[in-house]
Automatic annotation (TrEMBL):
SMART domains: SCY. Keywords: Cytokine, Secreted, Signal. One of its GO terms (biological process) is immune response. This is Chemokine interleukin-8-like domain-containing protein.
Length: 99
């Protein structure tokens, strides 16, 4: 009779420890960059961009290319700043101009 109670107690204790450690750690960033592309990418090859989470150790921009690849680039690079300005000024697909 003592063995099932001991087994159940150990199981509940293990679940509590797992739940506690997962809760303390919290959800981390989805994607971070650790290596960077230094070669400028032509703006015609870039479909979109996203900034990585502030919780990543390296601030970065992820470029999505027409080929479906994700490239990590440094946001401080001049060509990256120009590319972002170009992408922000470009109308979204399906959006019409009011001019």
């Amino acid at each position: 009779m003592a063995a099932p109670r001991l087994t159940l107690s150990v199981f509940v204790l293990m679940l509590a420890v797992i739940a506690l450690t997962e809760g303390v750690r919290g959800p981390g960033p989805k994607k971070c960059c650790f290596g960077f592309n230094t070669i400028p990418v032509p703006k015609e090859r870039v479909v979109s961009y996203t900034r990585t989470s502030q919780r990543c150790t390296n601030p970065a921009i992820m470029l999505k290319t027409v080929a479906g690849r994700n490239l990590c680039v440094k946001p401080s690079a001049t060509w990256v700043k120009e590319l972002i300005s170009y992408m922000d000024a470009k109308p979204a697909p399906g959006q019409t101009s009011n001019l």
